[in-house]
Design a protein that fits this description.
Strand order of the largest sheet of chain A: 2-1-3-12-4-13
Distance between the termini of chain B: 66 Å
Strand content of chain A: 15-25%
Oligomer: heterotrimer
Number of strands of chain A: 13
Helix content of chain A: 40-55%
Chains: A alpha/beta (about 350), B mainly alpha (about 500), C mainly alpha (about 140)
CATH superfamily of the largest domain in chain A: Bordetella uptake gene, domain 1
Number of helices of chain A: 14
Number of domains of chain A: 2
Strand content of chain B: under 5%
Shape of chain B: globular
Radius of gyration of chain A: 23 Å
CATH topology of the largest domain in chain A: D-Maltodextrin-Binding Protein, domain 2
Largest sheet of chain B: 2 strands, antiparallel
Radius of gyration of chain B: 22 Å
CATH architecture of the largest domain in chain A: 3-Layer(aba) Sandwich
Chain lengths: ~350, ~500, ~140
């Protein structure tokens, strides 16, 4: 009896020490299992795609074993604020990291100040507005003119609340008020939609006139040979995409406080507070290396994303400045209660 | 045109087997299996990846019937109804027979939906877009009428449990305005997205069962070891005599629900089960181990597979949560699924159809013969079986959202809730059905009203809607009649 | 009258619309169930609530196993966080086995330990290692 027990104990100890070995307390990513959390539960969105491609390349660079966990915004913020600051958990996520807090969905304790900001890996400039192909306007300026000419018409724009699309819409809305007046702006209503698939369906069954989504996910619906019922056209993109001929907000003259409005999602590595500088430096070197790797650039381009390295120190000032300017916009914007159809 | 060789065959077989294992383990699903294997497909080209991923999909949906029949724990949400008739059969010592009936039905459903996918994809996709929020709301409401059909003899209590389930599902953030409701502020962060389906499901079914058994001392195994193989009825293909209509009806329901984007897969088996009951000549036998119920449940959840691929490949919109993950495989290879997919990629399209066929056949071969041995699980003494069930449930719950300890607590909480329900005579299944459908019910209700400016008449103003209303009323009237009959019978006795 | 058939959806309150409807339905159903009960009790001339002949647990229920299960379960979850999945599983699955087997026979104890080590290691190896699923 005792023999068996002691045998088992030895086995248990043996296995645990084996497991323990892998997690030695050395500073550095080499040989470690790194959990890469992302703030989305979807494994098809840009968050997952960028995190997946990047962590595959980073694994080679850092000699670590990376695993992307799509756990959603709340759990991801929670994970990054409670995880050990030893590089075993990192987050790769876009602007929703701070927008959730700016819009009041998450508490202040998850603010950017309470985590360590690492290097930027890439950007997704692909956010766009699209309308049905037979819509009587071709861009967002024509839309306003159409509304001016047809005082009984109104349009419904499908956006996601509290996200990048929300920001894009309110900046446009503010511009419409400033340029065409409140009366025209009042006839642009918001319908709150969910995923891209849901918003596309809203457009198809006539519950929305314009939808906001990712350029790459809608591109196929704009091509030749699509059923008239499904066909869409782009009416605006938020930032220049290489090789794409759709007018940007800036080109159409949409401005915010006099400045042309440009918006790309920045994908940055975030680490738990207290992460040693050595780890951040190691990440800087690794991200720089993959962003110079043509294979990584091509893989990102295939998904219409851009590899865009920015060292951690620079990324920190950049993203905090971006947040502060958007905060001002969010504060001055009318609430969705007034913007939605009643 | 069709890519197929030894490598593809091996990959498909590996996919099917692993899928079956995932489907059979409580808390592990086809969706999870595909998500795990997605990054690995990067090493293959798209056609070879398809053999693996479709294998996982078919296997994952099919594997769920094993624990549902043998230990009354649905391995996946879509096999809940499988246990209703499958488990009583297993208790009677007909475990192998039940498993084989389920497997044959699965094969039928899978092949049926494949034919639909092959022949009718474009027209069905066009039909699917015609279903707006209103129709989807009504279809989910229709699926909920299964609650009334199930709670024979005590309909009010069953409906109450169903709506209680709906209420439980609503806890958490509402997607539209990102606001929390029905959540104690203590658990604010943990419950942003409410209770997760998998831990709730296995808590209600598996952990509550463990508690019940613990109370009574965990003495025996599920069936007496001698019972198996001696008095048991053997499986014969003639078991399917008179089931052809049922097979076709249930597979069609499954395929159709699959085609509708945004209506969850578990609605498929619920609907076919209640329809099998409505059309049955001996409805009172369903739930006591009738072949009909088992056939309906399994043919419909496999019918889902081909159906869910219809909107994915023709509109770029996934038909269920599993195919939603599948999109990732295409994206990683730089291929767009959508209206142009079939015309632009005929090779991949044909290969996918062929892969689906191969995977269904492999699924049948891999499951049909070995179940003879697998069925012995029920001979394992409970005191050895249940600790293993517990650890598997914990792994499943934890992995369901890629590592969240709160989900393990959810598992225990709903285990205790399920136990209390049994003690107070509140039916667990209607509660679970309400829970599964609750979120979608709300979403499409609110979406319908958003579209109509809050006018409730929207629910009565669309032709497809009228048809579904008709079905709902027939279903309810039938359940009411059945309920009265059952009540009278108990009084006479 | 037309207003009766309208449900106004105000964006910031839209998360409360459906829960209110469901709670309403639940209350109505609860009232119906109560009335049914009262009517039945009147018909059969029985008191509305009778606790006689009713018991929560079955007779001579296995207290140790029942409460043991819950306590072990809670400790298992807590310890998983502290000592990791594999170690915690080996220990607790053994304990569950010992609890349910309820004999101190040497053979039974050995079986318990073997079962738990084998299942825990297999699960850990397959999911944690081969499939790279995040385990506690």
């Amino acid at each position: 009896m005792k023999k068996v027990l002691s045998l088992v104990l030895i086995m248990v100890l043996g296995i645990t020490s084996l497991v323990g070995c892998a997690k030695k307390d050395e500073v550095g990513f080499e040989g470690k299992r790194v959990r890469v959390v992302i703030g989305s539960t979807s494994t098809t969105g840009d968050s997952y795609m960028i995190a997946d491609v990047a962590s595959r390349y980073l694994a080679k660079e850092l000699k670590s074993n990376n695993k992307v966990d799509a756990i959603g915004a709340g759990p991801a913020l929670d994970a990054i604020s409670t995880a050990k600051a030893d590089g075993s958990t990192i987050m790769i996520f876009h602007d929703m990291t701070y927008l959730g807090i700016s819009f009041g969905a998450f508490e202040q304790k998850y603010a950017l100040e309470n985590m360590v900001i690492g290097p930027r890996i890439g950007t997704n400039p692909g956010a766009c507005f699209a309308a049905s192909a037979d819509a009587p306007y071709n861009d967002m300026v024509e839309l306003c003119e159409y509304l001016v000419e047809n005082p009984t018409e109104s349009v419904r724009v499908a956006v996601e609340a509290g996200g990048v699309s929300h920001i894009a819409f309110i900046s446009y809305y503010e511009w419409v008020i400033a340029t065409y007046g409140q009366e025209v702006a009042d006839r642009i209503d918001v319908v709150v939609g969910g995923s891209t698939a849901e918003k596309s369906q809203m457009l198809w069954d006539g519950n929305a006139d314009i939808i906001f989504a990712d350029y790459s996910s809608l591109k196929q619906y704009t091509e030749e040979g699509i059923d008239a019922q499904l066909k869409m056209k782009f009416v605006a993109i938020l930032d220049e995409i290489e090789g794409v001929d759709v007018p940007t907000f800036a080109e159409q003259g949409v401005t915010l406080n006099g400045e042309p409005f440009v918006f790309s999602k920045d994908f940055i590595v975030y680490l738990p507070k207290g992460t040693p500088q050595e780890l951040v430096d190691e990440l800087d070197v690794a991200v720089k290396a993959i962003c110079e790797d043509q294979a990584f650039i091509d893989d990102m381009a295939k998904l219409t994303y851009q590899a865009a390295y920015m060292p951690s120190a620079e990324a920190k000032t950049y993203i905090i400045a971006k947040r502060d300017s958007l905060d001002a916009l969010i504060k001055s914007a009318p609430s969705l209660d007034d913007l939605t159809v009643q | 045109m069709i890519v197929f060789g030894l490598l593809q065959f091996v990959v498909a077989a590996v996919g099917v087997v692993i899928g079956i294992i995932f489907g059979a383990l409580p808390g592990m699903t086809a969706t999870m299996a595909i998500a795990i294997f997605l990054p690995l497909t990067y090493a293959y080209d798209i056609t070879t990846s398809m053999y693996l991923l479709l294998g996982l999909y078919v296997g994952g949906i099919s594997g769920g019937l094993v624990p549902a029949i043998l230990i009354n724990i649905p391995g996946t949400p879509s096999s809940i109804t499988t246990g209703f008739d499958g488990h009583p059969m297993a208790i009677r010592g007909e475990g192998v027979r039940a498993l084989r009936i389920g497997i044959v039905s699965s094969l039928f459903g899978g092949i049926f939906s494949l034919l639909v996918l092959w022949l009718f994809t474009p027209p069905l996709a066009a039909l699917a877009i015609k279903f707006s929020a209103v129709e989807k709301f009504l279809i989910i409401l229709f699926a909920m009428t299964v609650i009334a059909a199930l709670s024979k003899g005590n309909m009010t209590k069953g409906i109450f449990a169903g709506f209680l389930g709906v209420l439980t599902a609503l806890a958490g953030t509402f997607a539209d305005n990102q606001k929390l409701r029905l959540v104690p502020s203590m658990f604010k962060m943990d419950m942003l997205s409410g209770f997760q389906l998998l831990p709730v499901l296995i808590g209600l079914f598996a952990i509550s069962q463990v508690l019940m058994e613990a109370e009574s001392g965990m003495k025996k195994s599920i069936v007496k070891p001698t019972k198996l193989g001696e008095e048991a009825k053997k499986f014969k293909f003639s078991d399917f005599k008179g089931q052809l209509v049922n097979l076709i009806r249930s597979s069609s329901i499954g395929t159709f629900i699959g085609i509708l984007p945004g209506v969850g897969g578990s609605a498929a088996s619920l609907l076919s089960y209640s329809q099998a009951k409505s059309f049955s000549k001996e409805p009172e036998k369903l739930g006591t181990g009738a072949v009909e119920g088992l056939v309906a449940s399994e043919s419909s959840n496999n019918g889902l597979t081909g159906g869910a691929l219809v909107p994915l490949l023709s509109l770029g919109i996934p038909g269920d949560s599993t195919t939603a993950v599948l999109i990732g495989a295409f994206m990683l290879q730089g291929i767009q699924v959508g209206p142009l997919f079939i015309t632009q990629n005929p090779g991949i399209w044909n290969t996918m159809l062929f892969a689906l066929l191969i995977c269904n056949i492999i699924m049948f071969l891999v499951m049909f013969y070995p179940v003879k041995y697998i069925a012995n699980i029920i001979k394992i003494p409970k005191n050895r079986l249940y600790p293993v069930v517990i650890i598997m449930c914990i792994v499943g719950a934890y992995a369901s959202r890629n590592g969240n300890m709160f989900d393990v607590w959810t598992l225990l909480l709903f285990g205790i809730i399920g136990y209390l329900f049994i003690k107070f005579g509140i039916p667990v299944t209607p509660y679970l059905i309400g829970f599964i459908l609750g979120r979608d019910l709300e979403k499409y209700f609110i979406d319908s009203l958003k579209g109509s400016g809050g006018n409730l008449s929207i629910f009565f103003s669309r032709p497809i809607g009228w048809v579904i209303w008709g079905l709902i009323f027939i279903s309810l009237a039938y359940a009411y009649y059945d309920n009265r009959k059952a009540k009278k019978q108990t009084i006479k006795v | 009258m037309a207003d009766f058939f309208r449900v106004k959806i105000v964006y910031s309150q839209s998360h409360l619309v459906f829960p209110k409807i469901i709670i309403g339905i639940l209350i109505i159903l609860a009232v119906i169930m109560l009335l049914q009960r009262v009517m039945k009790a009147k018909k059969e001339k029985k008191p509305i609530i009778s606790l006689k002949n009713k018991r929560f647990f079955e007779e001579n229920y296995d207290k140790l196993k029942f409460y043991g299960t819950i306590v072990l379960f809670i400790l298992y979850i807590i310890f998983m966080d502290i000592i990791g999945f594999l170690t915690a599983s080996i220990i607790f699955v053994t304990l569950f086995n010992l609890l349910y087997a309820a004999t101190k026979e040497r053979k039974s104890v050995i079986v318990s330990i073997i079962v738990s080590v084998v299942t825990s290691v297999i699960l850990w190896f397959i999911f944690g290692f081969v499939f790279n699923v995040t385990l506690p």
